[in-house]
Design goal:
- The protein is an alpha/beta fold.
- It is about 20% helix and about 15% strand.
- The protein has a two-stranded parallel sheet. The chain has a two-stranded antiparallel sheet with strand order 2-3. The chain has a two-stranded parallel ribbon with strand order 5-6.
- β2 and β3 form a beta hairpin.
Length: about 130
């Protein structure tokens, strides 16, 4: 399964219309190694990809490991680790990550992203606003 919105994983399409990038390359290598064909199953975002796991619509995907997704997805050890932080104006009262979850603070994040799932579980005070897209 491919998260077509994540350009770090799927960077474009070949002249023949096949997805290209890290995720398709790794999928092709996995398939070659175990001797099976590849059928790319594209999703417009990670949330939809994760939701379809419960329906057994795909076998392998590259998606952020998160406890909320583990109901229907078994995760391997990570193939990479992505550090995430907050972008704030220089004049912001929040100058460290520890200062963000406070009364009156608002964090905008992408619906269904692993970062959003973490914020939903861990923030107690700041407002988490969800938007579509990256």
């Amino acid at each position: 399964a491919l998260n077509m919105r994540n350009q770090l994983l799927v960077s474009g399409k070949t002249a023949a219309g096949e997805p290209e990038g890290l995720a398709p390359s790794m999928a092709l290598a996995f398939a070659e190694r175990i001797g099976v064909p590849v059928e790319f199953v594209p999703y417009e975002n990670a949330a939809k990809l994760a939701d379809e796991a419960a329906l057994d619509r795909w076998d392998v995907a590259m998606i952020g490991a998160d406890p909320d997704r583990a109901t229907h997805i078994d995760f391997t050890k990570p193939y990479c680790q992505i550090e995430a932080t907050y972008a704030v104006p220089e004049t912001s009262a929040e100058q460290s990550c520890a200062e963000v979850d406070r009364d009156g603070a608002s964090v905008v994040t992408c619906t269904g992203a692993a970062y959003t799932l973490w914020l939903d579980r861990n923030f107690r005070t700041a407002k988490v606003e969800k938007v579509e897209g990256h």
